[in-house]
Amino acid sequence: MLVDTHCHINFDSYDPDRADVLGRAAAAGVEIIIHPAVDLPTTDAILKLAEQYPYIYAAVGIHPNSTVDFADTMIDEIETFAKHPKVVAIGEIGLDYHWRESPKETQWKAFEAQLGLAKQLKLPVIIHNREASDDVMTILDQWVQDLPPALQQRPGVMHSFSAPPAIAERALAAGFYLGFTGPITYKNADQLRHIAANVPLDRMLVETDGPFLTPVPYRGKRNEPAYIPLIVERLASIKQVSTEVLGTATTENALRLFNITP
């Protein structure tokens, strides 16, 4: 059994063949998919997918690029969504300084408010970080200082990790898992592979971030959960273990982080 810990299966690009995509995932051994939200308007659709498919679980939250209209009342809405029995995390949340679709101050406010909710609800977080590593870690280092016992060993995951080695060290020291996506297979990803080589097996996760970040040899095409074995294979090579060992470890990590009993 494998777990895709991050896939946006509700996105329009899956509309023509969503059932087939999920069928291919199961055939490839991907038996659990974590589906994070990016905003409030589409969260209902995500929860309906989680209700329809027993192996889909949800995270709820507001992506930094969706925070331009953030208001404190939105935290109440997220909390209501989070009461759904298939919700296993708050996310994806964080900071994005690449697209700058929302002012930094607004992103910070939304991020810190959602971290506060996660702590209150004792749910781990799925962290989005793009070109904002220092600020993200400054906030997270403070957040983990007084976590409830239920979160102290599983605060969350740095989704689709792509930051420098020093940030990996800080994230691991803070208790976070690191999620690896298709770029681990790319020719120019030597630094990322070096980071992966130094991440303990019990702190690694695999994810597609579908429909984005498709691994080699399908790069340039739509990503899907059936490609998780390609990421597992590359990481196993980097860690110099079998694909079975890598797959088992990342699955156990995902079940532990998201408190899922298959």
Q: Which features does this protein show?
A:
single chain; 262 residues; alpha/beta; TIM Barrel; eight-stranded parallel β-sheet; 8 strands; 16% strand; globular
What does this structure look like?
With 262 residues, the chain is an alpha/beta fold. It has one domain (2-257): Alpha-Beta Barrel (TIM Barrel). It has helices at 18-27, 43-52, 73-82, 104-121, 133-143, 149-152, 165-173, 190-197, 228-239, 243-257, and strands at residues 2-4, 30-36, 56-60, 87-96, 125-130, 156-158, 177-180, 204-206. Helix 3 (73-82) runs parallel beside helix 4 (104-121) and helix 9 (228-239) packs across helix 10. The model has no long low-confidence stretch (mean pLDDT 97).
**CATH first level:** Alpha Beta
Per CATH, what is the topology?
Answer: TIM Barrel
CATH superfamily: Metal-dependent hydrolases
Helical fraction equals 40-55%
* Major sheet details: 8 strands, parallel
Stretches with pLDDT under 50, minimum 5 residues:
none
SS-based class: alpha/beta
Please state the average pLDDT score. 97
* SSE order: EHEHEHEHEHHEHEHEHH
Bin the strand percentage.
15-25%
CATH architecture: Alpha-Beta Barrel
Terminal Cα separation, in Å?
A: 10 Å
Count of distinct strands: 8
